[in-house]
Amino acid sequence: KMEIVSGWVKLNNTLVDSINNEIYHSWNAVYLDQTWWLLDVVWASGYLDADMDFIRDYNEHYFLCDPEEFIYDHYPKDTFWQLLDEPMSNNAFKNLPFYSRNFFLSQMKPLTHSLGLIECKETEKLHLKFKITKSNVEYFTILYDMANNEVVNEGMRLYTTEKLLHIFIIIPHQGEFLLKLFEKTSKNVTSLLCGYIVKLKQNLKSSVFPKQYKQFQQGYVLYSPLQGHLIIGEKYKFKIALPGAVEMVVCLGGANSSWIPIGLNKDST
Questions:
Q1: Which residues form a coiled coil (predicted)?
Q2: Dihedral over Cα of 112, 245, 266, 243: its sign
């Protein structure tokens, strides 16, 4: 048994406006083993590139796809065909982040920011966190200034641990930005994973990350403080993950200053 389902989709490509760019499209629902399943044979056979040319690239994500994942880029006109226990509204669909097929094929899970629009306060830096399963890939981000039509090349830090990806971002000035996350495999294949719109209403008070030395190994994560300039007399709470470390010390001042030991808890933070 098969049904044709029509509705709106979010384009699975790297267009600047891909988060909000929706088009009318049709896909299928099939009834197998007393269960309805969703599939899109067009999207499973390829994708549209930035020039709107169809690129053949088979993937199995859109065959018998989990409805909880299918809803991120397919919104049926008849909400029954969402196949969700609680149907999602059209506004909720529009506010979802953009997750590509590669995001789900990579078995990534977002642990923060469930909306596609992230509004930052002037006193905070952006911190996104994802659960990851791959260890042989390189992650990188691109922050695109939508008003000035340019890529921002500074103000981003990525940390990977065994199961987590942390992304810290300083938004350079007020405005709207498109944030994209990519992965690069050992075979030098680059894929878009997800995208968000980031809005900053007022400029940040501090826009410099702490200096990071080469001894800061993979798996280490600096959670706070994230400002590179600390004010004398102010109190700061340091939180840093140093897997395998047995001791941490800090130095205030020049090379001849004394070193102050700081205790670590059981998980080396």
A1: none
A2: positive
